[in-house]
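ok trying this again, last paste got cut off
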Amino acid sequence: MHSRRLRALALLGLALALGACSSLGVKPWQRDLMARRAMRLDGYPVDAAIDDHIYFSKEASSGGRGFGGGGCGCN
């Protein structure tokens, strides 16, 4: 009985997950919005370099963004 419920729940979850995939495509009239520079992960490399410099300057002993802590040893 438990196996039957688990199987039914898994089938329901799969149906819900696959149903959501059908609406994820980009429509032709949305392509201009998706192609904008601001939509890229690194759309503004100069701004990212300035931000990296600021983080590195303020968090000199921790190494910038990728590390926790503030350089004071209090992690």
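PB: full thing came through this time. The helical segments are 2-21, 31-34, 45-58.
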